[in-house]
Amino acid sequence: MKILLILLLTFSLSGYGGDNISFKGVSFSASNKKTSISDIKPIAEINANWISIVPYAFLKDHEVMFDSKFQWVGERPEAIRACVKLAKSQGLKVMIKPHIWIGHSTYTGIYSCETEEEWKTFEKSYKSYIMAFVEMAAEEKVEMFSIGTEWGKFVEARPEFWKGLIKDVRAKYKGKLIYAANWDDYQKVPFWDQLDYIGIDSYFPLSIAENPKLSELVKSWKTIMPIIEQFSSLKKKKIVFTEFGFKSTSKATISPWEHKDDGKFSEKVQDIAFKSFFQTIWKKSWFKGGFIWKWYHDHEHAGGRGDTDFTPQNKLAEETVKKYYGD
Length: 327
Description:
disordered N terminus
């Protein structure tokens, strides 16, 4: 009985899931249809153990709009909840990672308000959006929740809002909490001490030219890693790449954050980019793992030859991911 009580206490202190297993995750892209079990099984088959589910919202006149009939079905709460259940049925742990589109392909990190009234309007609607999915996360025992994604100027301008939001989330949700900072501003986030991990959307530039060699990319990671490790040590938190990935183009490692580049299709560059990541940072003790950007429904027809998007599906990189996720 004593041993059982110790085990139960350990489980409760660690949230809804253990803290000793690395995040071998994928970022699941919402679709204009409900998710089916056939969409989830291929994720488990590449040895992934986590899935990031993104309930997208939109911004209009400084108000966050979500659960709209104009949104894709897969982005709305009912479908998000169903996707959580399906993922869990396949043994996957779940992170809910809210993300907002602010229009015209504008980067979220530059969003700001001009007046206090605008900030209050925005913050009220943002909190409503977050708390709606926090309640879902608590009900479904989702293992991790991200309080936001790439809000550079918002975080810098309104730190007290974020600190208050975290307290409110903690009051309702007992899983792990994280924030997804952009790769170039994670050191400026003032509330890491209130969260369980340091989340970074990892799009660090790794080369200055097309068609790099694996050795060049490995060298770049070896330059980047000590900086991240030092920050992890300073904050006494492990690092999670809340997003990481590469397009399958010849220019994929020059500016990895670019959704549009004029590089030629190259699954080889994508593959060696993933290999450089797995051969360097993946096994570091201060690194907790991450979520590949990104993974689509209808696996059989996703990605493949000629597709220059980020997904590794049906490309060389898929086998590389499967190999390292299986180690």
